[in-house]
Amino acid sequence: MNNFKKIVFLTGTRADFGKIKSLISILDVQSNFEVFVFVTGMHLQKEYGYTLIEIERCNFKNIHTFENHTHETTMDLTLAKTIEGLSSYCKEFNPDLIIVHGDRVETLAGAIVGSLNNILVAHIEGGELSGTVDELIRHSVSKLSHIHFVSNEDAAKRLLQMGEIQDSIFTIGSPDIDIMFSEDLPNIEVVKEYYEIPFDNFGIVMFHPITTEANEMQNYAQHFVNTLLSDNHNYVVIFPNNDLGSQLIINEYQKFKDNSRFRVFPSLRFEYFLSLLKNSQFIIGNSSAGIREAPYYGIPIINIGTRQQNRAIHANIINVGYDEKSISDALKSIDTHQVKPSNNDFGNGNSAALFLDFLKNGAIWSLNHQKQFRDL
Predict the structure, then answer these.
(1) Fewer CB within 10 Å: C terminus or N terminus of the chain?
(2) Concatenated DSSP letters for 202-218?
(3) pTM, whole model, 2 decimals?
(4) Is there a contact between 203 and 234 (Cβ–Cβ < 8 Å)?
C-alpha cells in the first residue's frame, strides 16, 4: 500500500457506533492511516442521551460533529441534510475511503457522497435482511459501495446475488462481538452502581418504531407498556432510536415514572449495556440486540412484531405479536425458558484484526472506482 490513507468513519447512532468502535480504534493508532470520525444524528440529541460524549471518551484524533436534524424529521430530509454536511466535510479533507455501517439514512448519505465524488465507500454488514424499510436502505448502500465487510457467508452470497464482484467482499464477522467478549467489560456491580439500578434480577426493554407501520405505533406502544405494567419483573428500559414514531413510544414510557420496577434511560454506554445484557434475565422488544448479542450470551429473547423479520436467526427466540395477550403469555413463560449460547454465525471476536489486515492489503485500494455488475 502506497503512502498513508485518509479514512472517514460515519456514525449516526449509539448502535452503529457500538459496531464500528473497535474498527476505528484499531485504525486510529496506525501510522499509515489518518482517521476522521464524522458524528451526526442521534449522537447530538440531548433527549437521546447526547452520546457524542461516549465518542469523545475514546480520544480519537479527529472528531467532527454535524447536526443533521433537530428531532423527528422525515427520513428524506434527514438524508438530504446529511449529504450536504458530509459532502462539504469531504471536500475539505479529501478522504480516500468513507466507511459506513448498516441501514440508517446517515449510512445512505455516506454512500451517496462517496460514490458521487469518486471516493471509495466501504459498507459494514451489508447483505443482511431487516424486514422493514431499513432493508431497502441497506441494499441501496451496498449497491453504492465499492467494498463490503460482511458478517458471514450468507450475507456474502446475497451480495453476489446483487451483482457485486467477489473480490470486493471480505468476511470479518460482526465487529461488536470483539467488544462483547473483551476482558475490559465493566463488572455488573460497577454498572449497577453507575446507573443506580437496584435490581438483583431484571429484563431489558428495547422497543423501536417501525417506519412502515408508523400509523400503528401509538397502539403498539400502548399495548407494550400496559403489558409491562401488568407484569411483575423488574426492567431496565432504554429509549428507542429516533425514527418516525419514537416520540409515541417515549410518551408511553412516562407511565413508568415513579414505578419502582422500572429504570428508564435515554441511552447507555455500550460496554455497560453489554454487561447488563449479559447479566439480565431476558431482553424484550424488537432490537437487533436480541438477534445479535443476546444469543451469544445465552439470554432469552422475546421478539415483538415484524422489525427483525427475516434476520439471520439461529437462536430459539420467542416471537410474538403486538397484542397484550401474546406479550403477557411470553412473559409468563420466560423465567423457565431455557436457551443455549449460540455462535450465531457472526464471527469469533477478531473482526477488527481481520478488518485491519484487509485494509493493509493493496488489493482493496486497487479496486475499480467504476463498479461492475456481475451476472450469476
Answers:
(1) C
(2) -EEEE----GGGGGGHH
(3) 0.88
(4) yes
